[in-house]
């Protein structure tokens, strides 16, 4: 086990907005949970949970036929399923979603083992840890002992979970979970789905936390507080008066030959301006995300693969709305706050978690704000266009090709799923896409009646709230540079990243000669925005769309089947022999994986292919 693990709890689970596991609440607030009081005891765990049969979902069916990599035990898909992660391998090989009218074999979910069933079990009051409510300090040696299917503990970010009872409910299957058995699964978890809210999903499985190694100051169990570890936050709670010394900023970029970002602030009677000097040229309004929630003011600036964070408890009150400006050629960001009272501020405020630090983006954790549901409009028989409004105290623009995570509390458990924002429509002569100060975010979301998240989302009333995370994803606008041919391969809701890509490419890339979309669906009724796509193809001669159906009616005259060498060879015709080309692909994971293989077979390079995954 890596030593760095011992510090991990500081990173996200402790100080972020998300709740700590139930037992941890006990520790933080001193009051036991009403359902089942749990207390920490020293020493090793002696109690072992009773043995379980722990069978896995059957993995027969269509996924095996069409795509070997869909099997969790093989190929690039390996390691991609752990804990609550239907989405990455979505739909699961045995998923009901894989059941089509085309005579494909059907393997239903094992009865009573859906994630909803798991949530019910966690609410049943059953002892899922096998420790009758005690929370213990777990040593490395002890953790290693619990490495069997019928006795499986896993450590994530310093907390140890008994996942034995969860085995049968894990959407990715037992084998994936067993890869981390008796060990620190943090890296594996982060590689696969760091966004999954395991704290909430597994809160009834918390055994305790890893024992602190002697090199680290020991904390007493009685007055245990995870904040104790975060010395820079609590102990150095000092007044900010403009820029901190440069040495206090992690100088990662300097190591790469770039200078570190810094910040400063100044004021007039009515405003306070926080200025962030990124010292980078490719900064724009998408690069900075600002939130003012309760007492916390937080600005996260994305610089390459790092986040530069300003996180302050402001010394005085400000108005809800603020403005953000970017001076692109010097990489300067100005955040203009309106004072509630026109007094002179002696200092800006107190530093909060990660303030004035530059950290790898993957380590920042997901930051959420509550957005109001403004409208919900049917698009196909099962897909809807949702419009959410950001709070006035948030500046957030989701870059082209990126996704966010939506979070809802379902039966007391926080559930998180990724979704890709779209524009409200495709460009047309009749309707300009809604911009409205970027306060609105649109999503095209398919509702799965047997799904965990989407039926809840569908139940929301106008005015209800959904939590929306910061954007993630590795698509870069620079991939469009000098682009001549853009080919888009989308299946089902895999169309969603293509919406902004289409809009952006057709309006901003002068070199573009040809944009083609091949859109795979089951039936005509499943095609999202068909008439908009046809109108766009009619209006813009550079754009062409082809629909391919896997389960069409006999009247369908268009293309049929699945992604195949024959379909691709016809589709991928360049405008000229050496044209600069980009191919984007998105859909069910096996579709995407198969598409990538076929594209490589046709000698397209890695740089010419962008696949969208979680
Ligand atoms: P789930 O609970 O995941 O279930 C869906 C279906 O699969 C149900 O029929 C269920 O019964 C079945 N199922 C689930 N697990 C199993 C299993 N183990 N065995 C058998 N059957 C199973 N979707 C959109 O609609 N729009 C988007 O913009 C969008 N963007 C995305 C972006 C990214 C990066 C990713 C990775 C996914 C995106 N998705 C998008 C998919 C989305 O995240 C969810 O996966 C989807 O909405 C289904 O969620 P759910 O909880 O409702 O369904
Ligand atoms: P769907 O309707 O089930 O399928 C769309 C089309 O893809 C159908 O024609 C289907 O054929 C075909 N298909 C499915 N599996 C295939 C395979 N293994 N090989 C070849 N073709 C295959 O799709 P959906 O329900 O909308 O699901 C969309 C998927 O896209 C979800 O898994 C979602 O997670 C993913 N998505 C990812 C992102 C991202 O950014 N990563 C964004 C949005 C959506 P059949 O009729 O034979 O099934």
TrEMBL record:
<dbReference type="Pfam" id="PF00173">
    <property type="entry name" value="Cyt-b5"/>
</dbReference>
<dbReference type="Pfam" id="PF00970">
    <property type="entry name" value="FAD_binding_6"/>
</dbReference>
<dbReference type="InterPro" id="IPR039261">
    <property type="entry name" value="FNR_nucleotide-bd"/>
</dbReference>
<feature type="domain" description="CS">
    <location>
        <begin position="258"/>
        <end position="349"/>
    </location>
</feature>
<feature type="compositionally biased region" description="Basic residues">
    <location>
        <begin position="49"/>
        <end position="60"/>
    </location>
</feature>
<dbReference type="GO" id="GO:0020037">
    <property type="term" value="F:heme binding"/>
</dbReference>
<keyword id="KW-0274">FAD</keyword>
<keyword id="KW-0479">Metal-binding</keyword>
<dbReference type="InterPro" id="IPR036400">
    <property type="entry name" value="Cyt_B5-like_heme/steroid_sf"/>
</dbReference>
<dbReference type="InterPro" id="IPR001199">
    <property type="entry name" value="Cyt_B5-like_heme/steroid-bd"/>
</dbReference>
<dbReference type="GO" id="GO:0006801">
    <property type="term" value="P:superoxide metabolic process"/>
</dbReference>
<feature type="compositionally biased region" description="Low complexity">
    <location>
        <begin position="86"/>
        <end position="97"/>
    </location>
</feature>
<keyword id="KW-0256">Endoplasmic reticulum</keyword>
<dbReference type="InterPro" id="IPR017927">
    <property type="entry name" value="FAD-bd_FR_type"/>
</dbReference>
<dbReference type="InterPro" id="IPR017938">
    <property type="entry name" value="Riboflavin_synthase-like_b-brl"/>
</dbReference>
<dbReference type="Pfam" id="PF00175">
    <property type="entry name" value="NAD_binding_1"/>
</dbReference>
<feature type="domain" description="Cytochrome b5 heme-binding">
    <location>
        <begin position="135"/>
        <end position="211"/>
    </location>
</feature>
<feature type="region of interest" description="Disordered">
    <location>
        <begin position="42"/>
        <end position="108"/>
    </location>
</feature>
<dbReference type="InterPro" id="IPR007052">
    <property type="entry name" value="CS_dom"/>
</dbReference>
<keyword id="KW-0520">NAD</keyword>
<dbReference type="GO" id="GO:0005783">
    <property type="term" value="C:endoplasmic reticulum"/>
</dbReference>
<comment type="similarity">
    <text>Belongs to the flavoprotein pyridine nucleotide cytochrome reductase family.</text>
</comment>
<dbReference type="InterPro" id="IPR008333">
    <property type="entry name" value="Cbr1-like_FAD-bd_dom"/>
</dbReference>
<keyword id="KW-0349">Heme</keyword>
<dbReference type="Pfam" id="PF04969">
    <property type="entry name" value="CS"/>
</dbReference>
<dbReference type="GO" id="GO:0090524">
    <property type="term" value="F:cytochrome-b5 reductase activity, acting on NADH"/>
</dbReference>
<keyword id="KW-0408">Iron</keyword>
<feature type="domain" description="FAD-binding FR-type">
    <location>
        <begin position="366"/>
        <end position="478"/>
    </location>
</feature>
<keyword id="KW-0285">Flavoprotein</keyword>
<dbReference type="GO" id="GO:0046872">
    <property type="term" value="F:metal ion binding"/>
</dbReference>
<dbReference type="InterPro" id="IPR037908">
    <property type="entry name" value="p23_NCB5OR"/>
</dbReference>
<dbReference type="InterPro" id="IPR018506">
    <property type="entry name" value="Cyt_B5_heme-BS"/>
</dbReference>
<dbReference type="InterPro" id="IPR001433">
    <property type="entry name" value="OxRdtase_FAD/NAD-bd"/>
</dbReference>
<keyword id="KW-0560">Oxidoreductase</keyword>
<dbReference type="InterPro" id="IPR051872">
    <property type="entry name" value="Cytochrome_b5/Flavoprotein_Rdt"/>
</dbReference>
<dbReference type="InterPro" id="IPR008978">
    <property type="entry name" value="HSP20-like_chaperone"/>
</dbReference>
<protein>
    <recommendedName>
        <fullName>Cytochrome b5 reductase 4</fullName>
        <ecNumber>1.6.2.2</ecNumber>
    </recommendedName>
</protein>
């Amino acid at each position: 086990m890596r030593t760095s693990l011992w510090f991990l709890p500081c990173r996200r689970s402790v100080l972020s907005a998300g709740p700590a596991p139930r037992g941890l609440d006990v520790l933080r607030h001193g009051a036991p949970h009403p359902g089942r009081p749990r207390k920490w005891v020293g020493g090793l765990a002696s109690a072992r949970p009773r043995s379980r049969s722990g069978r896995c979902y059957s993995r027969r069916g269509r996924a095996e036929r069409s795509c070997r990599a869909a099997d969790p035990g093989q190929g690039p898909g390996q390691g991609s399923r752990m804990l609550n992660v239907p989405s990455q391998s979505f739909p699961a090989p045995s998923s009901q979603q894989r059941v089509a009218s085309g005579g494909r074999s059907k393997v239903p979910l094992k009865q009573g083992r859906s994630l909803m069933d798991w949530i019910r079990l966690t609410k049943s009051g059953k002892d899922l840890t096998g420790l009758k409510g005690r929370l213990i300090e777990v040593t490395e040696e002890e953790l290693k002992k619990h490495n069997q299917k019928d006795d499986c503990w896993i450590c994530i970010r310093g907390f140890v979970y008994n996942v034995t009872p969860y085995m049968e409910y894990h959407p990715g299957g037992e084998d994936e979970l067993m890869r981390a058995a008796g060990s620190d699964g943090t890296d594996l978890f982060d590689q696969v789905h760091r966004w999954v809210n395991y704290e909430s999903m597994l809160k009834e499985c918390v055994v305790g936390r890893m024992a602190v190694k002697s090199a680290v100051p020991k904390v007493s169990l009685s007055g245990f507080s995870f904040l104790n570890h975060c010395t820079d936050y609590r102990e150095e709670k000092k007044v900010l008066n403009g820029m901190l010394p440069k040495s206090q900023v992690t100088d990662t970029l300097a190591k790469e030959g770039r200078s570190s970002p810094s910040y400063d602030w100044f004021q007039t009677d009515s405003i306070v301006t926080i200025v962030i000097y990124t010292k980078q040229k490719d900064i724009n309004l998408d690069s900075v995300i600002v939130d003012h929630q309760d007492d916390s003011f937080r600005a996260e600036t994305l610089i390459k693969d790092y986040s530069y964070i300003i996180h302050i408890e402001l010394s005085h009150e400000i108005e809800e709305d603020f403005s953000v400006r970017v001076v692109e050629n010097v990489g300067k960001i100005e955040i203009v706050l309106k004072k509630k009272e026109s007094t002179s501020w002696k200092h800006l405020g107190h530093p909060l978690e990660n303030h004035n630090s530059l950290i790898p983006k993957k380590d920042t954790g997901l930051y959420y704000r509550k957005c109001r549901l403004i409208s919900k409009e049917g698009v196909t028989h099962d897909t809807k266009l949702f419009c959410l409004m950001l709070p006035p105290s948030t500046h957030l623009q989701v870059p082209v090709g990126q996704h966010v995570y939506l979070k809802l509390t379902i039966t007391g458990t926080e559930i998180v799923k990724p979704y890709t924002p779209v524009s409200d429509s495709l460009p047309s002569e009749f309707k300009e896409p809604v911009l409205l100060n970027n306060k609105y975010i649109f999503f095209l979301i398919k509702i799965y009646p047997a799904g965990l998240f989407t039926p809840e989302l569908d139940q929301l009333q106008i005015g209800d709230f959904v939590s929306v995370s910061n954007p993630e994803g590795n698509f870069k606008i620079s991939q469009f540079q000098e682009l001549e041919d853009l080919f888009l391969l989308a299946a089902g809701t895999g169309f969603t990243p293509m919406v902004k890509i289409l809009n952006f490419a057709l309006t901003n890339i002068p070199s573009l000669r040809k944009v083609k979309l091949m859109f795979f669906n089951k039936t005509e009724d499943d095609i999202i925005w068909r008439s908009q796509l046809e109108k766009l193809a009619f209006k813009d001669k550079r754009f062409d769309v082809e629909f391919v159906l896997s389960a069409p009616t006999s009247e369908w005259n268009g293309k049929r089947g699945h992604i195949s060498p024959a379909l691709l060879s016809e589709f991928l015709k360049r405008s000229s022999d050496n044209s600069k080309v980009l191919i984007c692909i998105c859909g069910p994971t096996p579709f995407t994986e198969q598409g990538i293989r076929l594209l490589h077979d046709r000698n397209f390079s890695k740089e010419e292919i962008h696949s969208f995954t979680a």
